[in-house]
Amino acid sequence: MEIYQGIILGILQGLTEFLPVSSSGHLVLGQLYFKITEFTLVFDVSVHMGTLAAVVVVYWTDIRQMLEAIFKLLASIAGSKPFVPLFKTDANLKLAAFIIAGSVPTAVIGLFIKQFEQVLFSSATLVGCMLILTGTILWISRRYYHNENAMAKFNMKQAVFIGVVQGLAVIPGISRSGSTIAAGMFAGLDRQTAAKFSFLLSVPAIIGAEILGVKDALENGFVMNLATIYGTIASFVVGLVALKLLLKLVHRGKFHLFAPYCWLAGTLVLLSKII
């Protein structure tokens, strides 16, 4: 992989990880376009770590508060103090519990789909179809823009449902951010809460996927070249900008405007396989 290819793919990852147009689908198409086959696993792991860093930067306060709430819970358990009431009184602990609950179905579905990754991540036709599906989900979501802050009404069933959708978003062409934010709105959350939970839920999912990716990369020979380093830096910088942009669009109720792009991109991909 050339350095310029790594930078282009890193920019592509940074943009599409957060904008609801499917990062995995665009990376598959980009790698197919450049005819890249070597070191793709290491590269994929690295650029995803770049976008993970962007999420941590934007949501650091929420992540820190949840970690403090978890340590507070552990201290109560160690001190034989009542800890059940904490889940009712501590909003940060409640949010952490929802993220853990949502991560379970994500992990189960993700591990199952991983068995078919050789087929899924080499099919441009599948990517095209799933991009069209993503566009349809985004367009439907415009009817579910709830204005009332629903964080107080957020429950475990909603968290698990969003986690299931995130697991399915492993399929290239289905946008993780797009499908999970839409799922949150379909479940009754306001768009701000849906977006916040979507990106916080992505943190353990990305970390888990990267641990498996690093394990596979080490077994197949881990090589960190300049293209991967520059691509990772590009994915972080562009991802940071893209995440902040998406949050503004979600807050303004313009989330569904990405649907036409997904439809167009998916249609062009399918036409390219026919012509």
Task: Report on the architecture of this protein.
By secondary structure, the chain is an all-alpha fold. The protein has one domain. Helices cover 78% and strands 0% of the residues. It has 13 helices and no strands. Helix 4 (60-78) packs across helix 6 (91-114), helix 6 packs parallel to helix 9 and helix 6 (91-114) packs across helix 11. The protein is globular and about 65 Å long. The mean pLDDT is 84.
Give the tags.
globular; 275 residues; 13 helices; single chain
Q: Specify Rg, calculated over alpha carbons.
A: 19 Å
In percent, how helical is the residue content? Answer: over 70%
Alpha-beta content class: mainly alpha
Main sheet, how many strands, which sense, barrel? none
Based on Cα principal axes, name the global outline: globular
Number of helices: 13
**Mean residue pLDDT:** 84
Order of helices and strands: HHHHHHHHHHHHH
Strand content: under 5%
Unreliable runs: none
Ends apart, CA distance between termini: 28 Å
Number of strands: 0
